[in-house]
Amino acid sequence: MIRSALRLTLALLALAPAVLAQTSFQTLLVGIDHRTVTNLDGDWHYLVDQSPAPALYTGNGQINDRGYAQNTHPNISNGPHNGEYDFSTAPTLHVPGDWNTQVPQLFNYEGVVWYQRDFDVQPIPKPGTRAFLHIGAANYRSHVWVNAKRVCDHEGGYTPFDCEVTSVLHPGSNFVVIAVDATRMIDGIPSVGIDWFNYGGLTRDVSLVTVPAAFIDDYDVHLAHGPAFQPGSTELTGYIHVLDAPAGTPVTIDIPEAGVHTTATTGADGRAPFDVKAASLTLWSPESPKLYKVTLTTGTADQRDSITDDIGFRDIRVDGTRILLNGKPIFLSGANMHAEAPIRGGRVDNDQDVATIFSYLKDLNANFVRLAHYPQDERMERAADRDGIMVWSEIPLWQHISFDKPEVYAKAVAMLNEMVRRDRNKASVILWSVSNETPNNPIRTQFLTNLANEARRLDPTRPITSALNTAHIEGSAGTLTDPFANALDVIGLNQYIGWYTGQPEDADTMQWTLPQKPVIASEFGAEAKAGNHGAVNDRWTEEQQNYVYQHQFVMLNKIPQLRGTTPWILMDFRSPTRNIPKLQDGYNRKGLISEDGKKKAAFFTLQQAYKDHTLGKPE
Ligand code: GCU
How far is the CA of 572 from the centre of ligand 1 (A)? Predict the structure, then answer.
């Protein structure tokens, strides 16, 4: 019975990629932060719709379009009794922002909050113009109404989406109402158990974008990626997708600084593929994070659409156990980072948060960051592009996910598409990760292998990875035989010798048997409360954390295929599962820096190792 159920699920999962190839994904406009938009950030009215959230969900679980979405005002003094809510007199929340750190009563709230604001549409969009509401991210499920008409629904707390509002807008004053439900779900991604704070709300920028009838919604401009890296190659390739454009629509690609001016033409699918040789090119790298102004233009006169993006060109690939950047072997000296705002706490959502995080990475002498465990604010990748920091980007398939459900696979593919689509033109992003610490069983392996192949289909120019904690440790022998590793180009190895398992010194004698692929030590570390001091084996002290690092270095330097290190984690972060008073107080304390910016002893040990390049080798 169990065997036949397993066979059936595996068969269904094997089918999943084909089934999903047909699925149309939510509209997503690429390069929004490089378009002229009407910014809708600011103070939005809000109302809390506590479980079972009757204003949002009808008795049979449908979405209630007749509730708060109508944005009516109560007849207080006279007239028939009507809806008992009123956004116009309700308090406000700042957007972008999580609600948890803005309103003390909502600190631990994981439910439905309704947002509302008015906005003006002036001047009246020219005939044939289209308008979209762009939402950078909303955690977790969101339903959007404009002028009382539902325009879209979205699931996923860490990727952007767009809702077409052309038909519902009118000149003058309009209103938008968004219900955001942060309730965790078994069949969600992530599922119910997470080790980070489930900040809810409209956590990233919201804007109104107007574009011509046929417009550029997606593009890919990269250095040609043949079977082997071609030193000196200046060949650029890719495509520009013009949504709803008739076949034969011309698109121009201009990169003045690289001497590129070329034209491509759309096919029936709206895609205009191109290949062009640049006169000269400085390739992007941490040492020289060169970005070029790339202008894409289509349409004529008042139906002209143009976007100028800042794009770097580089080649990243795996060669045996080496990772090559522009043909040269590299070592990734990094750290993990959650989207926890330094000092002020809460979800990262502004330039200052990002600047502080990148100053920490700079101080650490890092050239790499693993953005765990979900796509973070696009400002992070933009800063990485500018500062020359390479990025591991991941979708939140964290530990236990409903791998046996094709509908959950569909959600994973949608999130993967949204992540790749938003950041495919970011030179800093060198790795796509499809999961973290998932259980080693056939259903999970089939699911994730399909997903890794989907990532390769979407973007054949970047290696695919995942963080695995399925290594078997017996005595001082560590062996990774997880079949999912076969589907990966780069292996992420998570282990906590010296903290969750064994003593720090045990690392010294560890012998690892790992796949003949590049390996990144994607998590290791220990907890320490900043300012808590003691002997090297006094857990929770800076000395013990530092001691764990020192012994990890001994072990990691013995792994011949080690090509990167991202200890867990750059900065302490909030987590609902970390509740030892006076030590954790709701924070995971494995940071090298405390949430209020204090650098712990281990920070300086790693800083020195990255400066002296004494941890790991490029080949
Ligand atoms: C895991 C996991 C992290 C978690 C960390 C920890 O490896 O990937 O999300 O926070 O360990 O336990 O601190």
Answer: 12
Ligand 1 centre from 524 Cα, in Å? 9
Task: Measure the N-to-C terminal CA separation of the chain; round to a whole number of Å.
Answer: 49
The number of the ligand 1 atom at minimal distance from the alpha carbon of 525 is: 13
Low pLDDT (below 70) residues in the chain: 1-3, 5-27, 123-125
Ligand 1 atom with the shortest distance to the CA of 590? 13
- Quote the pLDDT of residue 68: 98
What is residue 26's predicted lDDT score, i.e. its pLDDT?
66
Alpha-carbon distance 241 to 254, whole Å?
16
Using the mean position of ligand 1's atoms as its centre, give its distance from the Cα of residue 348 in Å: 19
Give the position, in ligand 1's atom list, of the atom nearest the Cα of 194: 9
For residues 375 and 378, give the distance between their C-alpha atoms in angstroms, rounded to a whole number: 8
CA distance linking residue 213 with residue 268, whole number of Å: 16
Structure letter (DSSP) for residue 528: B
The residue to mutate among 566, 588, 589, 592, having the most atoms of ligand 1 within 8 angstroms of its beta carbon, is 588
CA of 195 to the centre of ligand 1 (A): 7
Q: To test the ligand 1 pocket, which listed residue (435, 437, 527) has its Cβ within 8 A of the most ligand atoms?
A: 437
Ligand 1, atom 10: closest residue by C-alpha: 195
Among 383, 359, 386, which Cα is nearest to 289's?
386
User: What is the per-residue pLDDT for 22?
Assistant: 44
* Nearest residue by C-alpha to atom 4 in ligand 1: 195
Contacts of 51 (CB under 8 A, 6+ apart): 111, 112, 183
Residue 231: what are its φ and ψ, rounded to 5°? -55, 135
Distance (angstroms) between ligand 1 centre and the Cα of 554 equals 22
- Pocket lining for ligand 1, CB < 6 angstroms: 195, 436-437, 494, 523, 568, 588, 590
Residue identified by tokens 């750059």 is 570
Test site for ligand 1: of 194, 195, 468, 522, most ligand atoms within 8 A of the Cβ: 195
Tell me which residue has tokens 């973290």. Answer: 436
HEC profile for 315-371?
CEEEECCEEEECCEECCEEEEEECCECCCCCCECCCHHHHHHHHHHHHHCCCCEEEE
CA distance readout (Å), 213 to 218, 303, 471, 591: 15, 7, 53, 49
Per-residue pLDDT at 458: 97
Residue whose Cα lies nearest atom 9 of ligand 1: it is 195
> From CA 48, how far away is CA 29, in angstroms rounded?
30
Q: What is the pLDDT of residues 386-396, one digit of tens each?
A: 999 999 999 99
Contacts of residue 66, Cβ cutoff 8 Å, sequence gap at least 6? none
**Helices and strands of the chain, counted as H and E runs:** 7, 33
Residue 16, pLDDT score: 56
Contacts for 470-473: CB closer than 8 Å, 24+ residues apart: 470/439, 470/440, 471/495, 471/512, 471/514, 473/497, 473/501, 473/510
Q: Do the strands 562-565 and 332-337 form a parallel or antiparallel pair, or are they unpaired?
A: parallel
Which among 84, 62, 57, 83 is positioned nearest to 181, based on CA atoms?
57
Q: List, for residues 566-580, the tens digit of each pLDDT value.
A: 999 999 999 999 999
Q: What pLDDT is recorded for position 25?
A: 60
pLDDT score for 268 = 97
Task: Look up tokens 């090298």; give the residue.
Answer: 592
